[in-house]
Amino acid sequence: MQVYLEDLNEQQRAAVLHINGPLMIVAGAGSGKTKVLTTRIAHLMHQGVDPFNILALTFTNKAATEMKERIERILGNNDARNLYIGTFHSVFAKILRAEATKIGYPSNFTIYDTDDAKSIIKEIVKDLNLDDKIYKPAFVYNRISAAKNSLLNAAAYINDSVIQQEDARGNRPMIGEIYLRYENKCFKNGAMDFDDLLFKMFTILHAAPDVLAKYQHRFKYILIDEYQDTNVAQYQIIKMLGAVNENICVVGDDAQSIYSFRGATVKNILQFEKDYEDTKVIKLEQNYRSSKSILEVANTIISNNKNQIKKSLWTDNEHGEKIKVVRTLTDNDEGRFVADTITELKLRNHYDNKDFAILYRTNAQSRSFEESLRKMNIPYKLYGGVSFYQRKEIKDLLAYLRLVVNPNDEENLKRIINYPVRGIGKSSIDRMVLAANTHGITMWEVLQTPTSIGLKGAALAAAENFVVMLKSFQSMLEKENAYDIAFAVGKQTGLVAELYNDKSVEGLARYENIQALLNSIKEYTETPDEEGELHDKSLGNYLQQITLLTDVNNDDADKDAVSLMTIHAAKGLEFPCVFSVGLEENLFPSAMSLYDRADLEEERRLFYVVVTRAKSKLWISYANTRYRFGSLIQNDPSRFLDEIPEPYLDKTFTGSASKSNNSGLGIQFRADDKTPSSLKKLSEKIQQQAIPAHTPSANFTIADPSEIEVGQKVEHQKFGIGTVSAIEGASNNRIAHIDFGAGNGLKKIMLNFAKLSIVK
DNA sequence: TGATGCTAACTTTTT
DNA sequence: GTTAGCATCA
Predict the structure, then answer these.
(1) A430 catalytically annotated
(2) Residue A390 pLDDT
(3) Residue A388 or A353, more confident
């Protein structure tokens, strides 16, 4: 038996050894799904399958990189570089680059990110004299995106009576028209948005039988990761590509389907067996990641969902600790609690920073954690948020580079035609746009004959100089690599100098960002290609890749730092210690999801995902109040808290943070009619714990937590007078054991949060 | 015409 | 609390 087969369990090995024919692997969280996929690919190659014939598709760059690395480790050589492995978007972009001319697109098409797309939509809304309060760019974009993911073009959208009724009911009957104009504009600009990379891929395979045959023949083996997250477009493409050989292997877990907002549909999993009669189904149900407690909690949570494929995930791992539920007064307290706890655990249990992850529902929640971690000098890595490539100065330089490759791209042309300022003002630009629209040509073409639109004097000279400059960059395309062109652009446009001369703090940061971008381009040109087939370090090839990256290449990936990210971004990852934060109604579950069963179930799957990221320690926290839109709001604890079975819960930290009365910031577990029944149950539980009999004495003064010592008599606002019997924990995160005698008994109280008065 | 300062809108989640 | 977009001023 091959070495790589030895540490697989029976089901895993069966999945690896199944070579020909359709295969569906239903893989629970932590069941070794990536291991199976990578071993399977290594095994195929070991059996003599040419890596050029293997296509492996993932959803994130992170997952693709990790897969590639693991395959290389198994193989012990670099044959893996010949595999077609990457995200749906990046692999299709590469293929489209070779085939786009078949549907009238230039091969050097530009890829628009979400911001680019929204600003075009905004312009169209303006051109149509529509109210942008009703036709919000984000809303229209989502609508168009959903249509594309269902393989509906603008014409089909307009002809679909159901969609038209929907839009009419939503008082937005013009979305179809906007879509049509958007579609035309992108085509004219030689640009595709993210969804087009799927849609146009489908279009080509559908329209050009020779292309379809070519890739059907090439991809003899197809592997799809996270199949539960595929949408209609992806499903159809895979189906077409795999139709000849039917060697399709999909891996998925319906319990972890969290991308329906992007058009993903679990139906694709259920459909798979119907599409391929002789599908072999293998279930991976042994979890190797988490403790029994964590897994039990996860299983219980997910069982609350009605729609799911039945499976029973189990583990041989030890029982482990209870799940710690933490209540804090504010979002800042939540941040402090997490930072304090990390500090303490590093001291006490010798954990590294990289063993911790703080996972939240929305990116906006990262602030309080960043602050508290910085204060405690804990290094952290923030994933997501505003990406490096979305910063203005980066987009400016990239706009030039894109324009050099594709001068018809009007959006990027407009972005930089007068930046840095070169005397091409608004009125000149307006004339160009007008001329371009009336003659059905592009702005770049108008620019070739600037006198034809009546430019004269300084404006004429400026326009001519701009054209000459851009053409000089274009002449470099053939011979020079991406870095040389980027450097020349930065220098000759005056863009780098402009930032260099800005000596403000922000200006300095922008200058550094531009340098970082140039360095990363340099690194790109100096790193050998992974495909092996072509050593294409051209600017065009560079730009192709860059738009699909969400982050700067993490060469500091092994840096010892706490990870901060959304739960979505954490899928597929695991950490010894996980803080699942912000478990509050309206936040998690999100306010957008409360009125629809399917949406709420997706939130619950998200909760399932976050719980199953943890190997041994899991904290779940919520704050009574937090800042949102600049003002303080109160949220009830999340209904999901009530779905955690009691025996697995450690609520030590929930009872000590509230004030004695029902005023001010103290939590008030309302039991009125508005409160969901699940919350009532939870509030009853907690109210039973707290005995509100005690009234604080008149001279009650809150003591500094560091003054509390063993043996002292202290007064608690709620529990009354007690004696400190022991203190545990680090100096900044001490927990006092206080005996409040009959009635309240022994309590563990976190000194950072509790308000105690020393009784003299 | 460009920079500065104020108001409003903003928060799901990602390629 | 943050940022984008608009209005106002130099």
Answers:
(1) no
(2) 78
(3) A353
